[in-house]
Amino acid sequence: MKGLGTALVTPFTASGSVDYRALQQLIERQIAGGVDYLVVLGTTGEAVTLTETERMEVRQFVARQVAGRIPLVLGAGGNCTQSVVEHICQAGEELRRDYAAILSVCPYYNKPSQEGLYRHFAMIAEASPIPVILYNVPGRTGVNMLPETVMRLHEAYPERIIGIKEASGNMEQIKRLIAMKMSTINCQLSIISGDDGIACELMQAGADGLISVASNAWPEDFGRIVREKDAALQARYQAMIGLLFKEGNPAGIKTVLSRMGLLGNYLRLPLVPNSESVQREIDQALEKLTK
After folding, report:
1. Which pTM does this prediction carry?
2. Which of 78, 123, 266, 270 is 20 to 30 Å apart from 46, CA to CA?
């Protein structure tokens, strides 16, 4: 997986149901904007607040709407290994038909050791009908997957574990992983930035792309940032990127998208929209971006 992937939001109506009309509009905007792939039902998609039936309906709706025009990646993770495996196996035929890979987050809350992380993802790799992208985001999960564990997994399952979305924010660690990849003969592991704000620096260091939140709103510009390593353009968005995450994701990007008229500013509890003060800051940042 290379280039720009958008971590797709899940729009809701005022009554709390999934807004499929807004989702359709958002998907078409992404494709027209030239993104390389979409990540469905990840953190930004508020997957943990959807019912199992809703998750199934969303992933099927997105697949029908995209109709093979760009690859799709499905969020599929959890902190019970057996449950994740069962979920993947139950959707096996659908995944083979509609999705290029799954994105699986490190188990959260129970804080496994590096050996526990290895065995968790090894079991997922052996069960999954499609390739797996690891997702390291210790700020959310409470556990940090080290480069040695990542390389061990890729070397054990080179055709099954094809990449990692790295959102640790630890530049030294990510650059060490890139160096380990580069020093390994024929290593095909994709190292993907999970942070909009450091994408250029990681791309310049040898990363393969970005899974972006901000590209929900600005797919063309973030595609340029990734493909051209345009540090000046990234710097122009730096203040906005900070605001997108000031009160948690996806509250910030939903504020922006609502201002663009693409969806209603609705989230599911325990998440809530941005405070009025942060919404004002986002409005001011949007005004500066349009000048």
Report:
1. 0.96
2. 123
